[in-house]
Amino acid sequence: MIDIIFVNWNAGNLLKEAVDSIVQYHSGLVGKVVIVDNASTDDSLARVEAIPDLPFELEVIRNTVNNGFGAACNQGAEKCTAEFILLLNPDACLYENSLPTAYQYLKEHDDVGVCSIQLVEEGNKIQRTCARFPTPKMLIVHSTGLNRLPFIDAKSYHMGDWDHRDTREVDHVIGAFYLIRRSLFEQLNGFDEERFFVYLEDLDLSYRVKQAGYKIVYLTEAQAFHEGGGTSSQVKATRLFYSLRSRMLYAFKHFSKPAAWAVFLCTMIWEPVVRVIIALLKGSTADAKNTVEGYKMLWSRASDINQGKGR
Hints:
Blueprint: E1 2-8, H1 13-25, E2 30-38, H2 44-49, E3 57-63, H3 69-77, E4 84-88, E5 92-94, H4 98-108, E6 112-121, E7 125-126, E8 130-131, H5 136-144, E9 168-169, E10 172-173, E11 177-181, H6 182-187, H7 201-211, E12 215-226, H8 236-254, H9 257-281, H10 285-300, H11 302-305
Parallel strand pairs: 1-2, 1-4, 2-3, 6-12
Antiparallel strand pairs: 4-11, 5-12, 6-7, 6-11, 8-10, 9-12
Helix pairs in contact: 5-9, 8-9, 8-10, 9-10
């Protein structure tokens, strides 16, 4: 069986559509759906609770403050008892073969700890949702803008250079559809919620899954819909702040001290200049303003980052 966890923050009707898709395509595999709400102010929970005759148990956890993605997932996992946990985004919807294919694959492959499936958006366009574990070089090259030079090896940790049309073992699959063995999730103590508020907490978990000796597999034999962007697109400057902070927190957790400090300095000093220049060259004063606002937040919390403080 599978228990499904949603982390909700003002997802509007997207959350209901996601739950509706589980109602339609649960395939008898879903025991419980847990929605952890991070202090939403919209009617997204009411829409879900109005759905009649659910074929699975629904449990809603209402947080009075936004606890972040990783912490909310950990809260939800505490309520799960099934063999597998599926982390599913509110902007994702299942198809008929989404659950059975992923479920059967994990049942048949004991050495695989996590699997995901092919995610598509409007027009049936395949999203590129897998990643490599980042290296200091990858982060520094992109932080400084050197990736724009033709003679620089600018391979990103996002696997945008691969068309995602074949099944393969990968380093990481994004948390929009992240099926993991519950025993493994518990063995790893779930997400590092003390360090990561939002962004890269799933990458960090995948890194620890690999360290524990398990594989992570991306399957193209099944698909699900994923709108992408989701509710985080509502607050661009704040999103930039959390994204950059998580990058540096990841560096200080998994890189050597000199490498982590190199990533830190490039991100904090050089990258804002590059971002503002690119925004202005594109004629987007709004992007330049969001960059400045995001960096103001980042600079104000700079002293916490090398200490691993993300809360």
